[in-house]
Amino acid sequence: MTTSYYSPISYQVPPSEDGWLLKTILQKRMDVSRKLLSRLKMTDQGIMLNGERVYISVRVAAGDTVEIRMEQETSEDIMPQPIPFEILYEDEHLLVVNKAAGIIVHPTHGHYTDTLANGVVYYWAQKSEQFRFRPVHRLDQETSGVLVIAKNPYSHQHISEQMIAGTVDKRYNAWVHGVPAAPSGDIDGPIDRDPAEPHRRIVTPEGYPSLTRYEVKEVYPGAAKVELKLESGRTHQIRVHMGSIGCPLIGDGMYRHPLYAKGVPAGVPQAQIAEEQAQPKRVVELDGAESAQLKRIMELDASIPRQALHAVRLSFQHPVLRTELVFEAPLPPDLALLQERLQRDAARK
To answer: 182 near 238, Cβ under 8 Å?
Structure first.
């Protein structure tokens, strides 16, 4: 059986590296990980020096061309489906998309179809291309915005290492209830699972270190638009951190404003509250400022069917070209409408 390879990734040895071990070139100059190096050594054309297969213990000379070739792969466990998605950038190493809200990135137990992965695999198949679906990072199902998919293990390794090193710049826009106390700041709160509800996360001293930087961009009546930069990548990090400072995301059904737990606004039928909160046992009626605040919160939550969170910008170094890449995803219609509504509210105030 003939092995098919992706296009080679090449490196020309400069005079200053004359006599170096090939292994050193691969690890120190081409940044090939130990795991990938082991895989390349097992294939006929995985590691080539001037067009010939060699041992990595040989020494190179100035002007030599070192090439690595990775075997073509497919995601045989992902069923192709014609699911549309927006492409922001694509080359032989990367696919960058603007993920829509409501779509899961990768198949999970009990949810094997209708994911972004199904659509991407179908898209590649239509072009007679073979790649394994390798998302470098994830976005929650109801979060929209920039998502990077690596087309080979080398690209995945390089961008993942940049994320670990903190050199990938991930920016989000969020619309939240209330206004943070300071116009900008850091939310440094360890995050872990909620023992009472393991599908939720909470800020807890026993959690994993988590840091979110925020800056208030616009202020509205009872709400704000914030830009956030993640310095760590915990599950639900932005949603949990913003809730921890009293500014949960608008439309977030999992991490709701704490006023929902206190009672119901004055004059609002209990049946409506039960529908909004799915907790009909609460019968305490709020009045005054809290009542008006909760009414406003309920109105905003009802105006959008998902958390108001968008991965607006992502920048990192291209794994092969080593140039800086910057991607921005335009606001989807639901968030654009929410922002327009909030801006109108602010103008009327």
So the answer is: no
In a domain? residue 280: yes
Quick check: is 287 in a domain?
yes
Q: What percent of the chain has pLDDT over 70?
A: 93
Q: Mark whether 140 is an active-site residue.
A: yes
Confidence of residue 87 (pLDDT cuts 50, 70, 90): very high
Structure confidence at residue 280 as a pLDDT band (50, 70, 90): very low
Query: Do the domain assignments include residue 332?
Result: no
243 domain residue, yes or no? yes
Query: By C-alpha distance, which of 197, 155, 145 is closest to 7?
Result: 155
Instruction: Tell me the sheet residues that pair with 230.
Output: 212
Element (H, E) at 314: strand 309-317
Catalytic residue among 64, 140, 252, 334: 140
Number of residues in the chain: 349
Please, how many CA atoms are within 13 Å of residue 342, restricted to the half-sphere of its CB?
Answer: 28
Neighbours of 57 (CB within 10 A): 8
Domain containing 255: what range?
Answer: 171-309+341-348
Whole-angstrom distance, CA of residue 312 vs CA of residue 302: 23
Domain end (from 36, 68, 100): 68
Write down the pTM of the prediction.
Answer: 0.88
**Domain endpoint, select from 34, 68, 102:** 68
CATH of the domain at 28: 3.10.290
